[in-house]
Amino acid sequence: MSGAGLSTHVLDTARGRPAGGIPVTLQRVDGGRERVLLKRTVTNADGRTDEPLIARGELRTGTYELTFTVAAYFADLTSAAPFLDEVTLRFTVADAAAHYHVPLLVSPWSYSTYRGS
């Protein structure tokens, strides 16, 4: 059975809008420690990537890490150094046939995520 892929988007909760221009790195975590780089991309004006992080049919079960580099994006909101630099989300894909959407809701001071559809 082919997998449905992996996608993400970033929402700026401080400004109430999508966060464009956020660098995103996707890595697979093999053997619990070794990271294998799968993709580097940047969010577009809609806060999404232009293409899926993992295309339909290519998703595998296992552990992954998404890293969002947010410091530069939020640097203009405060005169102090940004509190958040990089946000790394580690998650497990248990069903490669399902679609995994992993959004980041972020402000200069906090973040949350969930498994979306």
From TrEMBL:
<dbReference type="InterPro" id="IPR000895">
    <property type="entry name" value="Transthyretin/HIU_hydrolase"/>
</dbReference>
<dbReference type="GO" id="GO:0033971">
    <property type="term" value="F:hydroxyisourate hydrolase activity"/>
</dbReference>
<protein>
    <recommendedName>
        <fullName>5-hydroxyisourate hydrolase</fullName>
        <ecNumber>3.5.2.17</ecNumber>
    </recommendedName>
</protein>
<dbReference type="InterPro" id="IPR023419">
    <property type="entry name" value="Transthyretin_CS"/>
</dbReference>
<dbReference type="InterPro" id="IPR014306">
    <property type="entry name" value="Hydroxyisourate_hydrolase"/>
</dbReference>
<dbReference type="InterPro" id="IPR023418">
    <property type="entry name" value="Thyroxine_BS"/>
</dbReference>
<dbReference type="InterPro" id="IPR023416">
    <property type="entry name" value="Transthyretin/HIU_hydrolase_d"/>
</dbReference>
<comment type="subunit">
    <text>Homotetramer.</text>
</comment>
<comment type="similarity">
    <text>Belongs to the transthyretin family. 5-hydroxyisourate hydrolase subfamily.</text>
</comment>
<feature type="binding site">
    <location>
        <position position="48"/>
    </location>
    <ligand>
        <name>substrate</name>
    </ligand>
</feature>
<dbReference type="GO" id="GO:0006144">
    <property type="term" value="P:purine nucleobase metabolic process"/>
</dbReference>
<feature type="binding site">
    <location>
        <position position="114"/>
    </location>
    <ligand>
        <name>substrate</name>
    </ligand>
</feature>
<keyword id="KW-0659">Purine metabolism</keyword>
<comment type="function">
    <text>Catalyzes the hydrolysis of 5-hydroxyisourate (HIU) to 2-oxo-4-hydroxy-4-carboxy-5-ureidoimidazoline (OHCU).</text>
</comment>
<feature type="domain" description="Transthyretin/hydroxyisourate hydrolase">
    <location>
        <begin position="6"/>
        <end position="116"/>
    </location>
</feature>
<dbReference type="InterPro" id="IPR036817">
    <property type="entry name" value="Transthyretin/HIU_hydrolase_sf"/>
</dbReference>
<dbReference type="Pfam" id="PF00576">
    <property type="entry name" value="Transthyretin"/>
</dbReference>
<feature type="binding site">
    <location>
        <position position="9"/>
    </location>
    <ligand>
        <name>substrate</name>
    </ligand>
</feature>
<keyword id="KW-0378">Hydrolase</keyword>
